[in-house]
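Sequence only, no structure available. Ideas?
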Amino acid sequence: MTVVTVRKSEVKKIIGNKKDDEIDHILSMMSTAVERMDNDIIEVEVAPNRPDMLSEQGILRALKTFSGKERYSKINVNKSGYKLIVDKSMPKDYPYGISCIVKGLKFDDEKIKEVIDIQEKLGATLLRKRKKGGIGLYPLEKINFPITLKGLKPEEIKFRPLEFPRELNGKQILSQHPTGREYGHLVEGWGKFPVFIDNKKVIMSMPPIINSHEVGKIDENTKDVFIEATGTDYELLKKIMNIIVASLVDIGGKVYSMECVQINGKKENIPDFTPEKKKLNIENADKLLGLKLNDNDVKKLLGKMGIDYNKGIALVPAYRVDVLHEVDLIEDIAIAYGYDNLVPSIPEISTIGEISKEEIIKNKIRELLIGLGLIETSSYHLTTKEYQVDKLGLKNNLFIEVENSKTEYSILRKDLSHYLLKIFGENVDVEYPQELFQIGSVFGGKNGLEEHDSLCIALAPGNFTRLKQILEYFGKMLDLKFEISKTSNFDPYFIEGRVAEVKLNGKFLGYLGEVHPKILKNFKIKMPVALLEINLEEFFNK
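Reply:
I predicted one. Tokens follow.
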């Protein structure tokens, strides 16, 4: 969880002159936790599902509605008449950019620190330590519109980076500037680096690394700001923008949208603070919470969470990016009602539980592989088409897809192999050998609708012989005799002649082999990799 600092004096302006234990109780009722309270400082631990509360302004905004001081209010957006153009020269791994303007701000040292803090916290959480993108703020008066986001060769990029005494080129920034050294691995292998350039050809920044010192530094004299967000996921960037802009509105800013033109020609005015309509069935809320609520009850409870409600429709503020489903609304109802006020009841039916046969077998496999020095990993059921299909070189598009997905994680995984390769690609500079395994559900099959448990083992560096020995070892320990034979019919990510099919009791389980260099390159893996993935269902039928 992330810790956010809030001034006690600001909290008391909302809830009154309460004692410390009362303040602690009120904040904990909002599903946050007070880590420390000292003089005028309160350190609040914020759950990962509430990125809109990753700033003092966000927590105070939530506290105002929770305490009944304010209700949901719409954020007004005016058009600026300015434009951002994303050029096709952008790196294919980093294709998106959006921007907007906020005017009428009154910065001091404290507020500048708060803005930088929320930038860093959003970068570390939603943007995964800038792997998914970056955020930048600039004094508006130093910029000439329109603005272009384009890709340039590192040696063509020359500007003075933030808080640095002299001009550097793109490569020098990665090696000489502290922030460049910290985040340089994000652009490793890119032929071109992203840069923002204004109408006078001035380089404003090199996202997601660093801003220009000349045009990208805000101070106490800054009144109007240009805000940009760049990255790999367009929908995520819009959410990030809404969160940070909402925080600036809370300190007196007025919002002006910009027309943002993407590489594919898509145009959209950013930001868009239109509330999202979500259906809510009160019967479902009653069933989950054990309550008997009516429309007025729900309106009052959701109002405490900053959400408007009327006759089965909830209007979710654009910065509440955590509300994805009806159950999220029901969770908010529970928080507003107070978990302490929910009365538990003992079910009339009693049962005696025990570990299933399947779990016993999976735990035994885990113990054996951990004993061999392998590390267990865990990954999401949802994945991306890029990693599941494109990077693996697959052509089969028979997968289960999430309808109207708001993120790039839009399909259920068909295998575990691509996730382990992804982990190798993200840890190329970590000490070797790296030997991983994972047990989990995969979805697909011949009709695209099957689900089964799978075991995947990946070794880097690895070879066919070493992986075959591991398979035979845990087969022996489980009293299973695998049939391993070379095959010409195999998944395209293996090397021909270095792959075998695995069977048990004459039934096909999966493949064991060495990964093709082309696939390793797709995942940016520097070591040879041996990979095994087998269906565990036959184990359970033993």
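The first strand starts at residue 2 and ends at 7.
Hope that gets you unstuck.
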